[in-house]
Amino acid sequence: METFVCGCCSKQYPTLHKHVHHKVPRALGGKDIAANLIELCPGCHDSLHSIAHRMLSKKVSQTQIIDSLMLIYIDNKKAQDICLQLALNVRNAQIQSDEKGLGPNHLITIGTTIRKFYKPLIINRYKELKLTQESYIRMLILQDVAKRFNLTANLLEENRLITYIKKEKSNSFIDRGEQNAKSK
């Protein structure tokens, strides 16, 4: 049976259980090269992500983080240090991603090219409506989606619109399931 040594706890495990982790996350510019990869056991990999997640919480102190590492890696200072460093990198990548709007609840960035002729007209229109450019484009998108689902929408009705769309999607899934059952 092929085995590997975990780069954190230094224990030997079957290769089947090997997790490959980026030392410097790709979100921070880390590359997919051997020097930037570390082989971890599932326990160490889960622990470092758990520690990184706890670091993001305002409710968890640095002392609690260190205490957790000491409990996870009893009498293994090297593993504590490696896990802490990897967790810090993951935490920093998450912070950077959130700042760029790429977190789980990220904003969608839309890039488009508009002919120069239209730009002053668009600027004039969103200023006329006393909106920011972002709010104006958001309003246009919501109005289009609302029109598609026969709803009236404005910026305040966004949550209601999203709930309605999710419900419609769910209903169409149920309808397709019933149609498939009938056709069999």
Main features:
DNA Binding (I), subunit A; 2 domains; mainly alpha; 184 residues; 4 strands; two-stranded antiparallel sheet; two-stranded antiparallel ribbon
Number of helices: 6
* Biggest beta-sheet profile: 2 strands, antiparallel
Oligomer: single chain
Query: What's the helix-strand series?
Result: EEEEHHHHHH
Q: How do the strands of the widest beta sheet line up side by side?
A: 1-2
CATH level-3 fold name of the largest domain: DNA Binding (I), subunit A
Kindly summarize this structure in a few lines.
55% of the residues lie in helices and 8% in strands.
Structural account:
Helix content is 55%, strand content 8%. Strands 1-2 form a two-stranded antiparallel sheet. A two-stranded antiparallel sheet has the order 3-4. It has helices at residues 42-56, 62-72, 77-99, 119-128, 133-148, 158-183, and strands at residues 3-5, 12-14, 19-22, 37-40. The two termini are 47 Å apart. It has 184 residues and is mostly helical. Mean pLDDT is 78; it is low at 102-107. The chain has 6 helices and 4 strands, in the order E-E-E-E-H-H-H-H-H-H. The chain has 2 domains: 3-99, DNA Binding (I), subunit A (Orthogonal Bundle); 119-183.
SSE arrangement:
Elements (H helix, E strand, L loop, with lengths): L2 E3 L6 E3 L4 E4 L14 E4 L1 H15 L5 H11 L4 H23 L19 H10 L4 H16 L9 H26 L1
Antiparallel strand pairs: 1-2, 3-4
